[in-house]
Amino acid sequence: MQQAKLSTDIIDTTVQQLQKIYSATMVFYECQDSKLLQPKIYLLNQSQSSFYEFSSDNEKAIATWAFKNGQEAGLTTNTLPQAKCLYLPIFGNSPSSVVAV
Questions:
Q1: 69-77 long-range CB contacts below 8 Å, 24 or more apart?
Q2: Got the DSSP string for the chain?
Q3: Residues near 8 by Cβ (< 8 Å), separated by ≥ 6?
Q4: Of 4, 59, 70, 101, whose CB has the highest number of CB atoms within 10 Å?
C-alpha cells in the first residue's frame, strides 16, 4: 500500500511539473500485467467534455500502440497523427507506462 501511494505521488508530481512546462492537459497510463490501465487525466483549463475526448477508445488505442511498440505516436508524428495528444512511452527495462501531452 505504501509503495502504491509513493508511485501515485511521483506520477502526480511529475505530471504537475510537465504541465508547468507545456501548459497542456496531460494523460498518464500506468501498466499492469503488460496492459495499460485506465488513464489518469490531468485537465488544464478544459471542460468536463474534454475529459471524454482524452479518454476515448481511439485515444487509448493510440496509447496502447505507443506502449506495445515502444515508440512515440499521435499528434505531430507520422504514426496515428489524428490523435488529440502526443503519446510517449516511458521506459524502465521495457515500456512501463505512457504519458500523453
A1: 70/94, 70/95, 74/100
A2: -HHHHHHHHHHHHHHHHHHHHH-S-EEEEEEETTEE---EEE-SS--HHHHHHHTSHHHHHHHHHHHHHTS-EETTSSSSTTSSSEEEEEESSSEEEEEE-
A3: none
A4: 59
pLDDT digits over 38-72, tens only? 999 998 876 666 778 888 999 999 999 999 999 99
- pTM of the prediction? 0.85
Smallest CA-to-CA distance from 37 within 93, 98, 84 is with 98
